[in-house]
Write a structure and sequence with these properties.
7-stranded mixed sheet; Heat Shock Protein 90; alpha+beta; 17 helices; Methyltransferase, Cobalt-precorrin-4 Transmethylase, Domain 2; Arc Repressor Mutant, subunit A
Length: 498
């Protein structure tokens, strides 16, 4: 995990809050650490910085004790006597202005956790214990309403799992980390510790969850319980109306990941790239994150199918989503929020995805080297969409026809077929999809802001400004009045480049 001075400085300058905790830890893990971890798991997740005092003073920890503390943290997070259900955590030692700190990211969990048999929650004021039956019950209800992966199938059994799939997953985890605390568990304990088998303390139902079914299930078992589940992988380079190649995938998520990565390897080049003195696969670095993202964060109770489409100049994915935020996700402002934490945890422990947030940053980091373009889109709405460029070229824009209103209007006024055709050609000749969307929104709302356009169109504010400059240069819009208090005005007609 990459850390930099600026990132830690920004965290410290924020001060403690509902999702950020500082703890003094010179030689040992603080006694209250797991109360905070439990509270973060039960609320919205958060970051713990060990070696920083409550007032933000960086005291650091003893460098000689750092490795011991990291090991103890991993062991305690896997100890059901300390934290139940257990939740495997990965902390990181970092150096900050010649001081050693420990950075711990705690994701929100889809289960209710207890520390030393007590349930903790989080507020702006810190951690607090839930003491009444009503408080604890409400916590369970909140979790059940938020995470569909928690749905229990009481009659689902291991016979409904793909033969050998659990053994294969556990072998991959073992190879990825030889000292993994799950390695010595029985399968039954593994299912419970990983959150794939659970008891609902409100309904008293017990059994394997939807996450277990999706990760390990036979195709017929998944289709019986979730008949709308499928992933469509399409190649649309030549035949853009239908497809040049297609994979209709309905198997479990572990096998689906393999099939999608094979589809990527079949149709996309792996360009030569050196990181230091080591060659790495840019294609795998980028697309394992894209594939894992669409499988991990899909809302599986929604019948909208997942699609993975390779075009000539871009790759586009879409999947059903239960949005936490609306709009474009950018590395510098992105706050990670898992949609299916237990599915995500299995993929992470297998080494098939990074910790939350790091994966998105990796796509931005390596995409420029792979394609020569940074025109990347992660857009979170009811349908989550990702667009990654394959080169510096743009796809032919079919929807640009929406931007023909000026030319069509002129041709119609002349009342001739020639006028309509010529005007339409003029109207479509110069506008991209984004420029057309900006123009339509400005025409609909002359007071619209750059930030509002960014959110609606789904591109960064810098790209909005760049496209507005081009629209101004084409004589299509102008700004009337000052930057604050003024308004936009649509003017002129689209002129052809001849």
């Amino acid at each position: 995990m990459d850390f930099n001075i600026e990132r830690i400085t920004n965290l410290i300058s924020q001060g403690e809050g509902i999702s950020l905790e500082f703890k003094k830890a010179k030689n040992n893990l603080p006694e209250s650490l797991f109360e905070t971890i439990c509270a973060f798991l039960n609320r919205n997740g958060g970051v713990v910085l060990l070696g920083v005092n409550d007032d933000g003073t960086v005291e650091g920890i003893d460098p000689a004790q750092a490795s011991i503390m990291l090991k103890e943290l991993a062991n305690l997070s896997n100890n059901p006597q300390k934290l139940f259900p257990t939740f495997l955590l990965n902390a990181e030692k970092i150096e900050y202005h010649e001081k050693t700190l420990i950075y711990l990211f705690v994701p929100v969990s889809s289960q209710v956790h207890r520390c030393n048999s007590k349930v903790y929650d989080r507020s702006e004021d810190g951690d607090f214990e839930l003491k009444t039956h009503e408080q604890i019950k409400n916590c369970y209800i909140r979790k059940n309403n938020s995470y569909s992966e928690n749905i229990i199938y009481p009659f689902l059994s291991e016979t409904d799992f793909e033969p050998g799939i659990v053994e294969r997953v556990r072998r991959i985890i073992r190879l990825n980390r030889a000292d993994h605390p799950w390695n010595d568990l029985s399968d039954a304990d593994f299912f419970r510790v990983a959150g794939l088998y659970r008891k609902d303390y409100v309904t008293e139902q017990e059994g394997f969850t939807m996450s277990a079914l999706l990760l390990f299930g036979k195709e017929e078992a998944i289709q019986s319980a979730i008949p709308h589940y499928k992933v469509d992988a399409l190649l649309r380079k030549i035949d853009t109306d239908r497809y040049d190649d297609r994979e209709n995938i309905r198997c479990n998520l572990v096998l689906t990941y393999d099939k999608l990565m094979a589809f990527v390897a079949k149709h996309l080049p792996d360009k030569f790239y050196m990181q230091g003195d080591q060659r790495i696969s840019l294609r795998d670095k980028i697309f394992r994150e894209i594939v894992a993202n669409m499988l991990i964060h899909r809302e599986y109770t929604n019948a909208y199918p997942s699609t993975f489409i390779i075009y000539k100049h871009k790759v586009e994915t879409k999947n059903a989503n239960r949005p936490h935020l609306y709009g474009q996700l950018l590395p510098e402002t992105f706050v990670p929020f898992p949609k299916n934490p237990h599915i995500a945890q299995i993929f992470t422990q297998m080494g098939r995805s990074e910790e939350l947030g790091t994966g998105l940053r990796n796509v931005y980091k390596y995409s420029k080297a792979y394609s020569g373009s940074e025109d990347i889109l992660f857009k979170e709405e009811d349908i989550f969409m990702v667009v990654v460029p394959l080169d510096n070229e743009k796809e032919p824009d079919k929807t640009v026809v929406d931007n023909t209103f000026k030319g069509t209007e002129k041709g119609t006024e002349k009342g001739t077929e020639k006028g309509t055709k010529k005007g339409t050609e003029k109207g479509t000749k110069k506008l991209t999809e984004n420029q057309g969307a900006i123009l339509r929104n400005i025409e609909a709302n002359s007071n619209i802001t750059i930030e509002e356009l960014s959110r609606i169109v789904g591109i960064a504010t810098s790209k909005i400004k760049e496209n507005i400059s081009k629209l101004k240069a084409k004589g299509l819009i102008r700004r009337v009045g000052p930057a604050k208090g003024g308004h936009w005005e649509v003017i002129g007609e689209v002129k052809s480049e001849e």
